[in-house]
Task: inverse folding
C-alpha cells in the first residue's frame, strides 16, 4: 500500500530541472528569467536608495521648519523676523538644489550599475551561444 502511494505521488527533484539536462529553449528561458529577476532586484535597490535619501532630506528639512517657527515665535521685532525668514528661504533653496544633485548622483550610479549588469548578461548570453555551437 505504501509503495502504491509513493508511486502515485510525484516527487519533484530539483536536480532533474538543472539546465544541462533540459531542452535548449528551456535553458534560454531560465537564463532570461534569471537576468530579468536580477535587473528587477537592482531596480528595487535603486528605488530604496532614493526613498532613504528622500526621507533623510525631508527629516532635516522638517527640523529646519520647526526651528524657523520657534525662532519667529521668539523674535520680538519685525526686522528680526524678516531676516530670519529670508535666511530660512535662502538655506532652503540651497538645500533643495543640493538634494537635486544628490538624486542626480544616485540616478547616474544606478544607470551605471544597470549598464554593467546588462553588459554582464550580454556577455553571458554570447558565451552560451558560442558554447552551444561548439557542443557536439
Result:
Amino acid at each position: 500500500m505504501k509503495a502504491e502511494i509513493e508511486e502515485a505521488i510525484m516527487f519533484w527533484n530539483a536536480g532533474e530541472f538543472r539546465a544541462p539536462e533540459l531542452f535548449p529553449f528551456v535553458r534560454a528561458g531560465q537564463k532570461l528569467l534569471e537576468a530579468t529577476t536580477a535587473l528587477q532586484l537592482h531596480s528595487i535597490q535603486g528605488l530604496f536608495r532614493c526613498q532613504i535619501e528622500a526621507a533623510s532630506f525631508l527629516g532635516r528639512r522638517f527640523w529646519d521648519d520647526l526651528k524657523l517657527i520657534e525662532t519667529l515665535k521668539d523674535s520680538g521685532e519685525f526686522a528680526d523676523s524678516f531676516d530670519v525668514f529670508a535666511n530660512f528661504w535662502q538655506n532652503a533653496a540651497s538645500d533643495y538644489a543640493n538634494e537635486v544633485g544628490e538624486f542626480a548622483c544616485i540616478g547616474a550610479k544606478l544607470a551605471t550599475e544597470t549598464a554593467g549588469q546588462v553588459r554582464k548578461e550580454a556577455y553571458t548570453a554570447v558565451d552560451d551561444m558560442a558554447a552551444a555551437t561548439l557542443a557536439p
